[in-house]
Amino acid sequence: MKKILALFSLLLPLTVSAEWGKFEYEFDEEKPWAEIEAQLPPYPKEENLRPLFVSAATDNKFFVDAASISTGEDGVVRYTMIVKSSAGAVNVSFEGIRCASRERKLYAFGRKEGSWSRARSAKWEPIRYQDRNRHHHMLYDDFFCPNGIIVKNPQEAVDLLKRGFRP
After folding, report:
1. What is the radius of gyration, based on Cα positions, of the chain?
2. Rounded CA gap, 115 and 158, in Å?
3. Residues with Cβ within 8 Å of residue 45, at least 6 apart in sequence
4. Which of 2, 41, 81, 148 has its CA 20 to 30 A from that of 118?
5. 69, 81 in Cβ contact below 8 A?
6. What torsion, rounded to 10 degrees, do the Cα atoms 57, 64, 77, 58 define?
């Protein structure tokens, strides 16, 4: 009986240690990130467009469709971006910004007649600072991921856009 108790006393710390290691692993390791499937929003309407001042170095005018902004459980803010050139060209795109990794993704392009065309190469790319068209950088820093943390809900993003416009 003494041998069994001695053996048990030797194995018990190993069992507790293994369980404790599993416990720490569950909290220390990040779970793999999984993107939720993005749903294309309705085509933007003029009355929902919020201006975004990007830079005096560009003649382009930038807008975000406030009605299209969504915050996903995957940590991605999705929105429709409208860029109007001084020559009259209009580019419409449905995009996402992932706050945790400072990346952006282009999901679809808007067509003139009001439909969407899926982007051929929809992949996550780093957000880089640019002097002229730095709208992704500004959206990340100032409106969708302040201090690297995703906004609580779409309304918070809309409120930040309303306050942040500079003519």
Report:
1. 24
2. 24
3. 65, 67
4. 148
5. no
6. -10
Position 12 pLDDT exceeds 80 = no
Q: CA 157, CA 146: separation in Å to the nearest integer?
A: 10
- Tell me the pLDDT tens digit for each residue of 76-115: 999 999 999 999 999 999 999 999 999 999 999 999 999 9
Q: What's the CATH code, domain 46-164?
A: 2.40.128
Count of other CB atoms within 10 angstroms of residue 55: 14
- State how beta strands 90-98 and 116-118 pair: unpaired
Give pLDDT tens digits for 33-87: 888 888 999 999 999 999 998 877 788 999 999 999 999 999 999 999 999 999 9
According to DSSP, residue 1 is labeled -
The percentage of residues in the chain with a pLDDT greater than 90, rounded to a whole number, is 61
In this structure, what DSSP letter does residue 133 have? S
Q: Which two tokens stand for residue 126?
A: 């780093």
Sequence ranges of the domains in the chain: 46-164
